[in-house]
Design brief:
Layout (H helix, E strand, L loop, with lengths): L3 H21 L4 H33 L8 H16 L7 H30 L2 H16 L14 H10 L10 H10 L1
Helix pairs in contact: 1-2, 1-4, 1-5, 2-3, 2-4, 2-5, 3-4, 6-7
């Protein structure tokens, strides 16, 4: 079972990949931004709900004070909401997307260099795995390493298969709708 630090870092890479592709891919820019938002919003909420409090508690035990990324989460979420409410053809869309990517990369670097090592160093392997399980369930609804779900994989995997099959409307579909469309495709 992957631990919390591994899961967070993997999700960081997935969101960065989606946004980088959105920056380069005019054909499905809005869909890629929506997919990134579907991953990023529960990720941020779970970090704020129980990851950051655990980091603050462990840091305080040794007299340290840490600055978590809650403010940065809210700034990124606000910019992301503006993109979701708009269209890739809107003036400023590309600039906002570039700003999100820059802010997100800065945030990820700080989190991975300053915050996550606290968990690696001060939580037991079992505690990190338990937190990882909780984080995975909160962000994807699935346990890591449990294999494909009854729906045929994660929503992201199904979205990628739908994209390969050129299924229209895929970015607006739920996981269940994607599974249905992919199986019929």
């Amino acid at each position: 079972m992957p631990d919390i630090v591994e899961i967070i870092k993997e999700q960081h890479r997935q969101v960065d990949d989606l946004l980088s592709r959105a920056e380069k891919d005019d054909s499905d820019r809005a869909g890629l931004v929506r997919e990134a938002a579907r991953m990023l919003l529960p990720h941020s909420a779970a970090e704020e709900d129980f990851v950051y409090p655990a980091i603050r508690k462990k840091a305080a035990e040794s007299g340290e004070e840490v600055r978590d990324g809650v403010v940065e989460h809210h700034q990124i979420e606000e910019m992301l909401t503006n993109l979701l409410d708009g269209s890739p053809d809107d003036p400023g869309y590309d600039g906002t997307l570039a700003a999100i990517i820059g802010e997100l990369r800065h945030h990820v670097r700080e989190e991975e260099e300053d915050l996550l090592p606290i968990l690696t160093q001060r939580l037991s392997d079992a505690d990190r795995e338990a937190m990882g399980r909780r984080f995975a369930e909160a962000t994807t609804g699935e346990l890591p390493g449990s294999g494909p779900s009854a729906g045929g994989g994660t929503r992201r995997e199904l979205y990628e298969r739908a994209k390969e099959q050129d299924i229209p409307g895929r970015s607006r579909m739920t996981k269940e709708e994607l599974a249905q469309a992919v199986s019929e495709g």
